[in-house]
Write a structure and sequence with these properties.
alpha/beta; 2 domains; 6-stranded mixed sheet
Amino acid sequence: MLAVGSASWPLNVMAQNLAALPHPERIVALIAALLATSILVTHGLLRLGADRLTAVRSVFLGFVVALGAGRVFDDSNGAIALLASAGVVVLATVLFSRLRGSLVVGPLIAGLAVAMATGPAVGLITNLGTFGAEETQAPALLDLDLKTTPDIYVVVLDGYPGLLTMQRDFGDSKESFVAALEASGFQVPSSAWSAYPITDLSIPSVLQMSYPVVVPGGGEDIRRELYEIISGTNVLVMALRQAGYTSYMIESGWSGSSCGSSIDQCVVSPLLDEASFLILSGTVVAPFVTAANHPFTAGTENTMSWLMDNAGRLTDDGEPSLVLAHLIAPHPPFYLDKECDRIVDPDRNPPFVTEGTKPFFLEQMGCIDSFMLKLADAVGPETVVVFVADHGTAGRHQMNTEATKWDHDDLAERMNVFTAIKVGDDCDIGDRLLNPNVMRRVLSCLNSGPLPDLGNRMFKPGVIEVAHAEVESLLGDVDP
């Protein structure tokens, strides 16, 4: 019973997220810690004179309440949640002691324990039912003949809107920032676009240099395959490995980001990753966890810190390196101000950019802008640096609207992305750039022969393809 009370909620989270568990060992360690705590509390009750059955029942019920309190109490009521959980243990101990011989209490507690024990199993079976045959498109591996092998950084900026959206929706042409990047050797396409509206599909399209999913349908198996692409099983990593590159990946803290066996050097995410946060935010300690940080913010801080600390070392080591990083910013929550100082505030954690949260969004964007310029200065002069966003903003609430109802402006806002590339003065990256073609154009600058662009395609949520004429209209929809 103690094991069930300690493990049911974490195991439920694991069962519902089979395709997105970068570090299951962390959840196992958490379960072990909870079980050890429940045993210690039970032992304490025994020493205070409670009988074994009463003690076990009381602690079991207390842990059920404690591990579910975060889903009942508001984040502002942390102290109340703690007191309520402790009160349940005390009250249950008194009641169970007096009703030890009751024919009702035993079956009720046993029934609750059975229900909690079978919950994760039911969730696991249900989730496994969504797995099936492989669904992603597997492009052929590239056989590169590189003329030069500089270090290559690919840094995904989550939710960073393109220049068109910044001008139209935020009244900021980003002119001075673009000028600063260009002074550092970057090319900033005026027309840069994502092929997909969500991170799960967009990052694989960059790394796979293709359209990984082109038809609607599929379940968890597609998500698992997409996360494997992100983890290193992709065309970019494999092709550069054959060319002598060592691959580095910095886990972002998002559940889709984990180092696979194809990655040579892994920088693990902070302990407070998305899975850990999801578990803890359902428990009695939720208010204290959410008041401290968010996994996306912690991951972004960790990623920026590692890149700045190691850029010089990688430049000087004499070996070609591929560095893959994902900043989950300026995506919500907007906990980083312009100076990259952390400000944890519920008002800074909206589901998307709203009129009221625009100032916070722009502050966090300012942090990312300054980081881009600092990293440009920290890497070697020959280093290739690619900053590419996975999708834009959703201020028109289009992500909550049926995809068939999206209009031109909905598409433009979500699909227009910021991209900046430093690859040498003698190579023109060009414009009208879609994410699947970003690394094709970059590698064409380094290779003895060009890698042709793929045809221009876009997909709305649900992998509903956008009409070709609409795509071409978007690619040319750039303000002067």
